[in-house]
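User: Continuing from earlier, I have the next pair ready.

Assistant: Great, send them over.

User: Here they are, in order.

Assistant: Folding the first of the pair now:
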Amino acid sequence: MDEMKNGELEEALFSVYTTREAEKIWGLAENTVNKWCNRGKFYENEARKSGKVWLVTRNGMNRLTRK
């Protein structure tokens, strides 16, 4: 596996959010992002479920909110 530089690793770590974090950052109503996940609005590389928690990427959120 290719090694990532510290800056790249930090960028990757801080560009993934739980649905609650994303809703707060993008100013969306509660459960909006969770609904988007369950309805398949995100591309495969923009969201995934970890246990009971959905994780979404900044790119996916920007695409769906057009920001």
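And the other member of the pair:
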Amino acid sequence: MKIYTNLLEQDFEAEKPDEKYVGDITYVWTDKGWLYLAGVEDLFNRELIGWKISDRITVDITLSTMDMAIGRRAPKEGLIFHSDRGSQYASNAYRELLKKYGIRQSMSRKGNCYDNACAESFFSTLKKDVIYGIRFKTKKETRKVIINYIEGFYNSRRLHSSLGYKLPREYINDYYKNEKKVA
């Protein structure tokens, strides 16, 4: 497996949408066993633009997550995607997917979670807001809670201090309105 240079170097600011994405995978326990959530976040507006919940932690979870992000945004070539050094992100299949879309791959330094702090922060927030303190009886129930949190709250109703206390979708909409005024 190939390990890539850290292109992000803890620079978590993006000047425009689809310039820098970060991704990671987290684990969620249920009474029926583990679920795995992979996510792709656009650093411009902190929106989770791709995500997948799976019973298995294989490369397929990361491929599906990036496919969703690309389908929602259609980024231009040159985008940086940053992750940890997990086998799913270092796999040939994942590298080929990024190459197909002209996405530059970046990886954290060995053992340095701060290099992917924004992705880690999303999962920490998710767990504090809806996972900790709840005993999930079924995987179906858990999936529903996570999906409702991502789409019904985090992306659409949660204010972000890094965005001047704006909503992710509000922040990106403001950007595009300003772009039209300039053009």
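Worth noting for the second one:
Residues 50 and 69 are 4 Å apart (CA to CA). The mean pLDDT is 93.
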